[in-house]
Amino acid sequence: MPEERLQKILARHGLGSRRGVEQLIRDGRVQVDGAVAELGRRADPAASEITVDGAPLPPLPPELTLLLHKPRGVLVTAADDRGRTTVFDLLDDPPASLRHVGRLDRDSEGLLLLTTNGELAHRLMHPRHRVDKTYEALVEGVPDASALARLREGIELDDGPTAPAGAELLRRDGRGAWLRVVLHEGRKRQLRRMLDAVGHPVRRLIRTGVGGLVLEGLKPGASRPLDAAEEGALLALVGLLDSPEAASISSRRTPAADAPGTTAGAGTEARAIAAHSPTPSAAEGAAASESVARSLALDGPTASGKSAVGRALAGRLGFGFLDTGMMYRACTRAVFDAGVDPEDSAAVLARVRSADLDVTWPDPATPRVSVDGADVTEGLREPAIEATVSLISRLPEVRDEMVRLQRAVAERSPVVMAGRDIGTRVLTDARAKIFLAASIEVRARRRLAEELAAGRETDLERVIEETARRDGLDQTGKRAIHPEQAAPDAVILDTDALNIDEVVARALEAYERANAS
């Protein structure tokens, strides 16, 4: 079994939320093979002895995957502040860890999966696993061969081209027609937008299948657990099982099938652990504080050169480089892959808090970001992510969550951390804080050069417009993007007339001065 982050193991065993179990580790209450564990430690629960306050981990709760027939007019979200019906209102006492796999918009209906298996949910939603989702759509008019061919070849949408889809005409229906369309992507209202693009707006949309599972025999609003064969086939489809036959029906449960006292027992043990909290060792606290103090906080507005400068500084100092924008993009990726509406603040925050984000460094200048154990680094610059990340990062609660995670990274070992609000919120105790200032024209030209070098088609006018838009969103979110908003002890470097080598040299001098004592 591969090693994974210790806090993920503890949370999976019911010892608290991610924040809660991280505090258990910080407090020195968690041991792996007899040694006190530190935040960031990885372990294999099958090969290592993991204890909390000297007690072994409680048993894993059984996993559950449900197939639900979502009715039209019901929301796919954990909660709605306007009191509208959600899919969770249709379930009888669902487990707290149950999450929906992707999303159907309010006006759509049909097959929706819900599961307590986070890795299964992640893989089912990730495009690389190419899990088929089958829909039947009643559209206006009757699509001709040309329209069907466009769907099969892929449609250019405002967030980029779609992958080729399966498309066939089923039957005529008055002035419209029913189509069957098969997708393996999951963008917001994707199929509706594709059919709009070919001139045949959707009048009714039903998802009839996901990954070999079908909707047949289930009334709207009803749900059922997967049987052993269905569960095995689904796990095998996404690489979590060698063969479908290896699945066991004993690994499933329904909300009503918990043995009496099971939940209470786990909760009692968790509460007992939380009831007494020894003080962290002074040595551990001092080491974490010194790691943060030695880190370098690099601030500035979008496209001010933070990434290029930060990578160069990380190489010189031998620290890991972290562009915090990668973490916000990883959050956005998690939101997209879960089918969450980026404008649904409560659902976005819930997804961000449930995501297991981690950063590793194959070399100092090349960070890799994973979400729920899967490396997502290569897809973080996709157009849809770039267009949406500011909507995610401007949410104060999301930034609070990221600040906590970013500081935890710096507590493990010194880093060069670049972003916005680094010196004023994240690494306030860092001795060296640098703010890179530049005019919007200069920043846009730098971003244009990066985009063209990466093979992405754009022009200066579009880049200036996008830079101004992101500045506006950052300003709305009260983020530090102007020199006067920098930390009081930050060194301000106006980079308009400097090349990257000159900026790096001055930043390095500032770091060495700040840490000379």
Q: Concise description?
A:
With about 525 residues, the protein is an alpha+beta fold.
Could you give the topology of this structure?
Layout (H helix, E strand, L loop, with lengths): L3 E2 H7 L5 H9 L3 E3 L2 E2 L5 E2 L6 E3 L2 E2 L8 E6 L28 E3 L7 E7 L2 H8 L7 E8 L4 H9 L2 E2 L2 E2 L4 E8 L2 E8 L6 H8 L4 E9 L2 E2 L8 E3 L2 H10 L24 H13 L7 H13 L1 E4 L6 H12 L2 E4 H14 L7 H10 L2 E7 L2 E6 L2 E2 L7 H11 L2 H17 L2 E5 L2 H5 L5 E6 L2 H14 L6 H17 L14 E4 L5 H15 L3
Parallel strand pairs: 9-15, 18-23, 18-24, 19-23, 24-25
Antiparallel strand pairs: 1-4, 2-3, 2-5, 5-6, 7-9, 7-17, 8-9, 10-14, 10-15, 11-12, 13-14, 15-16, 20-21, 21-22
Helix pairs in contact: 1-2, 8-13, 9-17, 10-12, 15-16
Summarize model confidence as the mean pLDDT: 81
The share of residues in extended strands comes to 15-25%
How far is it from the N-terminal to the C-terminal residue, by CA?
A: 46 Å
Report the count of strand segments.
25
Helix content: 25-40%
Rg over alpha carbons? 25 Å
From the spread of the alpha carbons, the general shape counts as globular
* Biggest beta sheet summary: 9 strands, mixed
> Segments where pLDDT lies below 50 for 5+ residues?
248-281, 476-481
Give the structural class: alpha+beta
Number of H/I helices? 17
Defining traits:
five-stranded parallel beta sheet; 517 residues; 37% helix; alpha+beta; globular; 17 helices; nine-stranded mixed beta sheet
